[in-house]
Amino acid sequence: MDKEERSKKRLQLWSRAVVHFSLCFAIGIFGALLPLAATGAPSIDIIRASFRPTVAAAPPLPDIDLLLIVTVTRPDDNDDGMSQEASLTRLGHTLRLVPPPLLWIVVGAENRTATARAVHALRGTGLMFRHLTYAAENFTGPGDEIEYQRNVALSHIQLHRLPGVVHFAGASSVYDLRFFQQLKRTRI
């Protein structure tokens, strides 16, 4: 084969490919527009208008009535952790009666046995919870540790952008359910 015959064959190959591509393209366009014609779309202008970006008003933020209950725990003096576990269980049973959504945040010093007991008590309640720990430090005053624990919880809430009403509940406190219903109705 000489050079001229090879170039003719290449030209024929390319022309066949172009014809094939054009035919497939036309069938594709026809297949895409056929359902629009069957539905009675009045004109192509309506189709073009549907692809134009429209500026829509931002949807209103949902009214989230999440209740964030923060409980700070102190290690027991007798080191058995039973009274802390009992207090968490009692508060947990009260919080189970509060209608969801509710997130219980429990903050305690990092101690293997106390943490394990607290998590066991929290899991037994069936509530959605987060257990936060911190490295135990020497605090000067009796209220310094509680203040530090509350700041740990608030940092967590801010970091994860948890929306809702925050209540600092004492583990040994007794609550009426109407109190939590009133908290859920609180709005900014």
UniProtKB/TrEMBL annotation:
The keyword Cell wall biogenesis/degradation applies. The chain crosses the membrane at residues 21-41. InterPro entries: Glyco_trans_43, Nucleotide-diphossugar_trans. This is Glycosyltransferases. GO terms for molecular function: galactosylgalactosylxylosylprotein 3-beta-glucuronosyltransferase activity; xylosyltransferase activity. Coiled coil: none annotated. Its EC number is 2.4.-.-. Keywords: Cell wall biogenesis/degradation, Glycoprotein, Glycosyltransferase, Golgi apparatus, Membrane, Signal-anchor, Transferase, Transmembrane, Transmembrane helix. It is found in: Golgi apparatus membrane. Pfam families: Glyco_transf_43. GO terms for biological process: cell wall organization; glucuronoxylan biosynthetic process; plant-type secondary cell wall biogenesis. GO terms for cellular component: Golgi membrane. SUPFAM superfamilies: Nucleotide-diphospho-sugar transferases.
